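We were asked to recover a plausible sequence for a given structure. The inputs and outputs are reproduced exactly as logged, with field labels preserved.

PROBLEM: sequence recovery
POSITIONS: 310
GIVEN STRUCTURE:
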């Protein structure tokens, strides 16, 4: 994979170049001002591209066959991987822009950013996994993890890929590739670490797991969808889509399930001589007695009064 520099203000030429350097894609932008600058440093199966666009460029890309990471330095990138909700990235974000096997689309809005691509097989090589390793979320597990990955990418680019002599040393190249892959695995939740922990594998995105944990910790408190999204570190729209895709409900729908389970536990433990169904329902935020009774019966097969009597 060659190291190169590209500089053009012609959208047609830029599209042809991007098709050759990345994957088949269609782009569009403001033809009055459309300068694209790209600097690639690459060796082996790893490449790091620094891009600078002084215009808004829309894109629609077929699967890359490689893991694609993005670090935003300025501007904004709106991105949507097929099957997921759109997300918005800004300065300081380091994310998975696209998995190897899915198309993606979006818009680069006057941005400087870094695209890092690597063979997804490196992830399995590092862990010794016999099956391909999948990343379970496109955002890092923490802000510190994202910054650590960005520093690792810059180290690999500046100290190895940009040095022609270093790229001719196979052992150094292999070590740098493994360092990058290991840092990716520590940055994003993934199938290898989940299965290595033992027990059943939880393939739900980390954002969903953060949201559920927040709900369980705040079951008795008044919380909104926006509160849950903030705790999960995603937008409200992304959270709603993730819950629909992985749990078949909305965030507030799941919260009602959690509170219904809490009410069920209270009713089972309560003394019917001193406790009422209405009191338990009100405690857990169910202010309409009829709706509470209907939801309870649908979940547990009998009315709440039956649990209280038993």
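RECOVERED SEQUENCE:
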């Amino acid at each position: 994979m060659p190291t190169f520099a590209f500089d053009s203000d012609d959208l047609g030429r830029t599209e042809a170049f991007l098709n050759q350097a990345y994957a088949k894609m269609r782009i569009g932008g403001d033809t009055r001002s459309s300068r694209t600058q790209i600097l690639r440093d690459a060796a082996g199966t790893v490449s790091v591209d620094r891009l600078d666009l002084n215009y808004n460029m829309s894109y629609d890309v077929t699967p890359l066959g490689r893991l694609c990471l993005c670090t935003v330095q300025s501007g904004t990138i709106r991105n949507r991987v097929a099957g997921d909700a759109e997300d918005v990235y800004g300065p300081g974000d380091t994310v998975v822009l696209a998995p190897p096997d899915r198309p993606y689309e979006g818009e680069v809005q006057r941005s400087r950013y870094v695209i890092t691509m690597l063979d997804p097989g490196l992830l399995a090589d590092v862990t010794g996994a016999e099956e391909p390793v999948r990343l379970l979320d496109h955002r890092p597990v923490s802000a510190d993890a994202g910054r650590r990955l960005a520093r690792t990418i810059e180290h690999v680019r500046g100290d190895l890929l940009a040095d022609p002599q270093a790229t001719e040393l196979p052992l150094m190249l292999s070590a740098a590739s493994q360092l990058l892959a290991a840092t990716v695995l520590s940055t994003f939740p993934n199938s290898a670490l989940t299965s290595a922990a033992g027990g059943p594998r939880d393939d739900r995105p980390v954002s969903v797991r953060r949201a559920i944990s927040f709900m369980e910790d705040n079951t008795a408190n008044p919380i909104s969808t926006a509160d849950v999204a903030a705790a999960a570190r995603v937008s409200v729209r992304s959270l709603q889509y993730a819950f629909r895709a992985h749990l078949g409900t909305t965030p507030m729908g799941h919260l009602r399930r959690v509170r219904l389970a809490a009410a069920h536990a209270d009713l089972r433990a309560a003394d019917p001589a001193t406790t009422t169904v209405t009191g338990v329902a009100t405690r857990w935020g169910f202010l309409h007695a009829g709706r509470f009774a209907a939801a309870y019966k649908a979940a547990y097969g009998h009315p709440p009064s039956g649990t209280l009597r038993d």
